[in-house]
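Risk register update: the risk of archive-format incompatibility is retired. Evidence:
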Amino acid sequence: MKKISLRGTWQFRGLHPTPTLPRNRRGILHWMQASVPGTVHTDLMRHHRIPNPFHGMNETEVKWVDDLQWQYRKSFEVPSSFLEHEVIELVAEGLDTYATVSLNGKELGQTANMFMTHRFDVKPQLQRANTLEIVFDSPTIRAKQLEQQHGHLRVALQSHRVYVRKAQYSFGWDWGPQLPTSGIWRDISLQAYSYARLQHPFVKVLSVADKEAMVELSVEIVRCSPTPIHVRVSVHGHGTSFEQTIPVSSDRMIVMVPIIRPKLWWPNGLGEPSLYTAVFSLLKDDEEIDVVEVPFGIRTVRLVQEPDHRGKSFVFEINGTNVFCKGADWIPCDSFLPRVSQATYKRLLHLAHHAHMNMLRVWGGGIYEHDLFYHLCDQLGLMVWQDFMFACAEYPEEPWFIQQVTGEAEQVLNRLRNHPSIVLWCGNNECEWLFCTEQPDKSPDDMRGSKIFRDILPSICETLDGTRPYWRSSPFGEGFPNDESNGNHHEWIVWSGWKDFTEYENNDARFITEFGFQAPAHRRTMETVLPPTEKYPQSRSMEYHNKQTEGMERLVRFLARHHNITGDFDKFIYRSQLVQAEALKRGVEHWRRRKFETGGALFWQLNDCWPVISWSVIDYDLRPKAAYYYARRFFAPVLLSYRRVGTTLELWLTNDTLHRVAAGLHVSFRTFWGDVLWKKSKRVSVAPNTSKCVAQFDLSPFSHHDPAVHYFHAQLDHEEHACEQRYFLLEPKHLRLPEPRIRSRIHQHSPGEILLKVSTRHFVKDVCLDIKRGEAFFEDNFFDLDPRTSKLIRVRSNLTPGRFFERLTISSLYERR
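Archived output:
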């Protein structure tokens, strides 16, 4: 198959100006240069026709963009040899969203689904010199027309959004701006062939055993000629070498392949995510006319739901082993999707892997992610809970909508089913939960759109895949959709319901797929979008960059609960990030102690789509917040955690490894100046993949000591999984921390890497390492230092050691009183 890319430089202009178009914007009616893939908004920004919508309150200044039609065109030539092919198609992998496509003045067709690849036969129209035109209608206007025609449904946020198959977050969310885009957002090309082409390859794992795994390889053949052709199938990797050539006699070819002594794909922390490669080659007279390469993994996945004393379990079993799922929810990386780079995907996913995460949930209000996302998850052992793109609403059940959804789901399955990282298909985000909350006398099946999630999607998943479970919604289960006794659960009584994070320890749900606390982005990230006069906590622009109703009020309320209130911009960000970090720590440690009565904890959310105060732990500019570094510790394979029950302090050891952990445990009661008033040591042992209480202490004998200057310290001496934990008797705002006397030394370790050593005489809480200008990634940060101890931190930075040291800042929670 031959391909001509149509990426690159195009032209665009606005059509049919409306009364809302400002007079000083009339220049957009003339042709301007565009970049494809791209969006109208990014093209307009490039020409300075609109301001950056992320800056200040500029989002309100660009709403007129969505009121217009936008026309894109590209003139191009094709060689005569290309025109000689029997079939020539225009392949648009992503048109956002309502598009009319024309070639050389003749309409090829119309589209109405952002998520689908569209193919158009252009053989009759294609010439040596050509002009391709695509006109985009306003997604908001079209959606509102459909809503007026078919009726208002129960929908959170913008009600018309459910009528258009477009990323739902683009209409505004409680963490994202209202910027419904239009444009050619993914690749577009001409593809030509004369005999046949391959499509929908699938490597289906049928059985797995120590000695042999059996896989079924299949591929579909689209023919346009009776000429004899063959398909050559090969599999290689980990000592396997298989090849077979088969004459094509139907539109689908199937080959059974045994894999001797298979290397299994394992989630992060439990083993190697081993991958094999299958190659399908289409041959005519021994000439390769098309080829498709498919990386795949060998693994089994089962969702274990067994009755117990509390209801029913919800545990993922991979390769016969129960896995406690640790991770976060994933949203789109930008409001303007085409500018998300490969480097951004690599950075975010490697950070997730570095923090010991083993699962990400692709949230149902965004997009089916780029292939690179799933390939990286395959390579890093990051399991994916994959939502279909429906969120927080009823959805239409008209035949035209069902037809769109069916085609979309079939494409999604055919594209993504080979990825071993995907361990579950999920119908939607929160649709049934919100419906049943508003209609407590109704069942989920009474919801408009239930047909999609109850019947259509599971049928497609079983037909086109059948290798992993389907789950109707997140959250869902028997009875009320967000019940704690079975199914999966979203915990939003804490934070959104104004409850403090201490309430997490009262939640005994079986699997947590959403919970979270907000915090601002890094100071430098926030500064990029705040006007110079508004860099203070309660400025208009600062509050505008929190999209949750009363979000800033919650931020201040919970900050006051745990830390001293401050009007200082830097300290406000620092302390708010610490509250978020402590909140996630409290929840995860509680649910990990319950292993496997609780089967997993995924916090909301990993990343952001713009610079914002949100629930993310990595901000839009890819700077980790305090909670990211806390996550790296509370997601560690072996975890020490405290649990207070009345006057008893319990110490738990959670072991996620597949080996017994036996080590010395040392617990002490200390002052911030280094005096050890009590200590105890013992040998502890925890079986593989379990959690148990390994020590408990009565707090009564310590009650006469000043709680503002004393704390408990626990340390596990293990060669591979050494860890420590501290317990404070008061909230941070009431601790009388000594003035920190931190010393630092650095030296170049290797090109691009610096070793930083910090040491202290007195206890220091939540050491924050940063640099004034430039970028640096600290392998660890926001950590405590015990008296007369030091810590060595690896830092990735392109700065010279001298420049790095000049720009290094070290701060902590201490405040002079």
